[in-house]
Amino acid sequence: MTPTDMERVVIIGSGPAGLTAALYAARAMLNPLVFEGTTPGGQLIVSYEVENYPGFPTPLSGPELMQLFRQQAERFGTRYRTEAVERVEHLADHFLITAPSGQVRSRTVIAATGAVARRLDLPAEKRLYGRGISGCATCDGAFFRNKHVLVVGGGNTAMEDALFLTRFASQVTIVHRRHYFRAAPVELQKARNHPKIAWRVPYVIADILGETSVTGAVLRHSETGATETISCDGIFVAIGHDPQTALFKHLVELDPAGYIITQPRSTATRTPGLFACGDVMDPVYKQAVTAAGTGCMAALDAQHYLEALQS
Ligand SMILES: Cc1cc2nc3c(=O)[nH]c(=O)nc-3n(C[C@H](O)[C@H](O)[C@H](O)COP(=O)(O)OP(=O)(O)OC[C@H]3O[C@@H](n4cnc5c(N)ncnc54)[C@H](O)[C@@H]3O)c2cc1C
């Protein structure tokens, strides 16, 4: 194999983490190759408005923001392939990456495949996601000033989201399918004590109403099957995320929730040359700016790893 057959940095994922890694790797003259996957731009591609990305005092849409990320990385020579990687193998001193268009070899791989917010799997969700339905209270809470919102879920995230949303919403109703809550008792108690929080337990969301934005939901009692309609302006689905780790499972350690574990103060995984950034390794913050931050770290870590190989 000639040296030109070997990439130095392959980045898998084109959300804020992958594209920031690409920008830094490209500016370090590493000529990165990005596999964009089936969602070029990542999760923000369904976001109607982003108000909290630093440097943009005027809100812009998720697709607009991600197009700027892409252009900026491209300006310094990033190459893109709009396809999903099927397999990543670690050979003696490099990785073999298999995609529909063929195989690529690379000294380093940056895993930036993100996480997917679990959905309720209702037909109306497709139409109304980003138009009243959200998987991120931190991101979208401020759009619901003086509105009534539902929070679906019974874990810590649901309780934290509900409490956070009371800052904006006039009323927050927690909808949970069982009497039992997974949330820590202290979080549950805080939510129970809050005057703006109401409860519908044990209920599931059977349908979501509204043509162009959410206007209400049909709730079904988990035990009796009885249904009722409730008016609301927003629905926050807080039933967890699935980090997209299928490609890397055999090469990394995962925490109990399925996120890639990286070494402290680093994006290095247990496999030399494989780095992870963004939501796929972040069970806590899950923001565009934190994904971009760890994307920068991953590119710098890859750069230092490559330099050490040469010395
Ligand atoms: C509706 C919504 C609104 C949001 N609003 C905000 C907001 O206002 N502010 C904020 O800071 N955050 C917001 N977030 C959170 C933010 O979008 C995420 O934290 C961020 O996108 C994570 O970036 P990431 O690069 O780690 O992963 P993602 O954005 O999830 O990108 C993952 C990438 O990996 C690719 N991929 C996956 N599998 C493969 C494969 N096999 N081969 C190749 N590529 C693959 C996908 O195509 C995608 O490009 C929002 C999230 C949602 C869902």
Task: Spell out the blueprint of helices and strands.
Layout: E1 6-12, H1 16-27, E2 33-35, H2 62-75, E3 79-81, E4 87-90, E5 95-99, E6 102-111, E7 115-117, H3 123-128, E8 133-134, H4 137-140, E9 148-152, H5 156-165, E10 171-175, H6 185-193, E11 197-200, E12 203-209, E13 216-221, E14 227-231, E15 234-237, E16 241-243, E17 274-276, H7 288-310
Parallel strand pairs: 1-2, 1-6, 2-3, 6-17, 8-15, 9-10, 9-15, 10-11
Antiparallel strand pairs: 4-5, 5-6, 7-16, 12-13, 13-14
Bound molecules: flavin-adenine dinucleotide (FAD).
Task: Describe the fold and architecture.
It contains seven helices and 17 strands. The longest helix is centred in the C-terminal third of the chain and has 23 residues, at 288-310. Helix 1 runs parallel beside helix 2 (62-75), helix 1 runs parallel beside helix 7 and helix 5 (156-165) runs parallel beside helix 6. The protein has two domains: 3-116 and 241-310, 3-Layer(bba) Sandwich (FAD/NAD(P)-binding domain), CATH 3.50.50.60; 119-237, 3-Layer(bba) Sandwich (FAD/NAD(P)-binding domain), CATH 3.50.50.60. The protein is 25% helix and 25% strand. Strands 1, 2, 3, 4, 5, 6 and 17 form a seven-stranded mixed β-sheet that branches. Strands 8-15-9-10-11 form a five-stranded parallel β-sheet, with helices on one face. Strands 12-13-14 form a three-stranded antiparallel β-sheet. The chain is an alpha/beta fold. It binds flavin-adenine dinucleotide (FAD). The site of flavin-adenine dinucleotide has 41 residues, from helix 1, strand 7 and helix 7.
